[in-house]
């Protein structure tokens, strides 16, 4: 595929740097312009990555932009994505895709009317570690998945993020902010969810920022920060999902899946790589050898050491899929079903009732070694 699709970005905050830095790894896409309601932020990112800084209106009109990446705050994801679609461009959104099923269905209708694509993060499930787990499941090494556990717990974003306010407002919280990584990975591994139940609480009504430059400032908490949920999948599997920003330390694994013939210990779905441990029947648990998957190769230094980061893989797959006329993996249907699950958990926490899903979806196609290599740009 010779032609690259032009990419524009709306929202030049913290996460935009990862998109701009990592996009050159992939074929089929070229970052060309960025926009923000704060033009100073847009100009700073544009200068850093040698792009054009545009107003939002001008970016929506730009002839050389095919896909716009929506990196705004969750509360305006729907409105911005709607603007993009109405302007006749494909849209790829950061997670969560939208904040309600109704919003998602409206965007779907708009996209279908114009023959446009919608994609959404997270794309970490395309990472080498998670695709290795997918391979174990698809080849029958675990038998049918019957149950499992997921734990994503810490003490919130106010200790490191410079402006953590929105994390504690409706549309965020641990389920909608971190939950997408876990729930999306579960869907791609097991399939769609049938119904959910949950308990939810908000132990602290305000938080004290300890990160600079606002250390000592207090912010209100208006969304649950501890949610313990139960997911029943259409295939009969039952998974426990515990999410919390009220925990200082714990000893739980990020994700464990229990099959008829074995158990797999899945690394943190927030990341592309990590160690996969596996046992067949009653045999000792063993760490599997690293799979030769390009999206599992460590390429960035983090506080925990070298880690694999291939953010924008989902965007690149969408661009290539548009050119090839095939479904893309980080699809609207997948993202909307994840939103259905997450908002269902919050609704169950409020009402004390089981909540049936309004949507379903197919598992996205697996991304094997050769398919992943085909998404990478050729080295010069």
From TrEMBL:
<dbReference type="GO" id="GO:0016491">
    <property type="term" value="F:oxidoreductase activity"/>
</dbReference>
<dbReference type="InterPro" id="IPR000683">
    <property type="entry name" value="Gfo/Idh/MocA-like_OxRdtase_N"/>
</dbReference>
<feature type="domain" description="Gfo/Idh/MocA-like oxidoreductase N-terminal">
    <location>
        <begin position="6"/>
        <end position="118"/>
    </location>
</feature>
<dbReference type="InterPro" id="IPR036291">
    <property type="entry name" value="NAD(P)-bd_dom_sf"/>
</dbReference>
<protein>
    <submittedName>
        <fullName>Oxidoreductase</fullName>
    </submittedName>
</protein>
<dbReference type="InterPro" id="IPR055170">
    <property type="entry name" value="GFO_IDH_MocA-like_dom"/>
</dbReference>
<dbReference type="Pfam" id="PF22725">
    <property type="entry name" value="GFO_IDH_MocA_C3"/>
</dbReference>
<keyword id="KW-0560">Oxidoreductase</keyword>
<dbReference type="InterPro" id="IPR050463">
    <property type="entry name" value="Gfo/Idh/MocA_oxidrdct_glycsds"/>
</dbReference>
<feature type="domain" description="GFO/IDH/MocA-like oxidoreductase">
    <location>
        <begin position="130"/>
        <end position="264"/>
    </location>
</feature>
<dbReference type="Pfam" id="PF01408">
    <property type="entry name" value="GFO_IDH_MocA"/>
</dbReference>
<dbReference type="GO" id="GO:0000166">
    <property type="term" value="F:nucleotide binding"/>
</dbReference>
């Amino acid at each position: 595929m010779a032609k690259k699709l032009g990419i524009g970005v709306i929202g030049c905050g913290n996460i935009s740097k990862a998109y701009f830095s990592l996009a050159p790894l992939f074929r089929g896409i070229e970052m060309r312009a960025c926009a923000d309601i704060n033009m100073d932020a847009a100009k700073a990112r544009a200068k850093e990555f040698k792009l054009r800084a545009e107003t939002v209106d001008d970016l929506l009109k730009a002839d050389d932009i095919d896909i716009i990446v929506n990196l705004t705050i969750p509360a305006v994801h729907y409105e911005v994505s709607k603007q993009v679609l109405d302007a006749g461009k494909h849209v790829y959104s950061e997670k969560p895709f939208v904040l309600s099923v109704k919003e998602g269905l409206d965007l779907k209708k708009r996209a279908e009317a114009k023959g446009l694509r919608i994609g959404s993060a997270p794309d970490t499930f395309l990472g080498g570690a998670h695709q290795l787990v997918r391979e174990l499941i698809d080849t029958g090494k675990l038998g049918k998945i019957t149950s499992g556990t997921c734990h994503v717990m810490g003490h919130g974003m106010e200790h490191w993020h410079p402006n953590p306010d929105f994390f504690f407002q409706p549309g965020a919280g641990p389920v909608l902010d971190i939950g997408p990584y876990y729930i999306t990975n579960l869907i791609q591994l097991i399939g769609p969810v049938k119904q959910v139940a949950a308990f939810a609480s908000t132990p602290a009504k305000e938080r004290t920022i300890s990160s600079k430059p606002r250390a000592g400032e207090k912010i209100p908490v208006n969304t649950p920060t501890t949610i313990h949920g139960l997911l029943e999948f259409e295939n009969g599997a039952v998974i426990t999902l515990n999410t919390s920003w009220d925990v200082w330390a714990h000893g739980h694994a990020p994700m464990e899946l229990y099959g008829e013939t074995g158990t797999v210990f899945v690394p943190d779905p927030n990341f592309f790589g990590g160690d996969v441990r596996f046992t067949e029947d009653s045999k000792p648990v063993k760490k599997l050898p690293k799979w030769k998957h390009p999206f599992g190769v460590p390429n960035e230094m983090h506080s925990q050491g070298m880690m694999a980061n291939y953010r924008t893989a989902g965007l690149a797959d969408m661009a290539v899929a548009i050119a090839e006329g095939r479904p893309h993996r980080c699809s609207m249907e997948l993202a909307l079903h994840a939103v259905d699950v997450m908002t269902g958990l919050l609704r169950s926490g409020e009402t004390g009732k089981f909540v049936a899903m309004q949507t379903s979806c197919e598992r996205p196609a697996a991304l094997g070694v050769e398919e992943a290599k085909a998404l990478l740009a050729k080295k010069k």
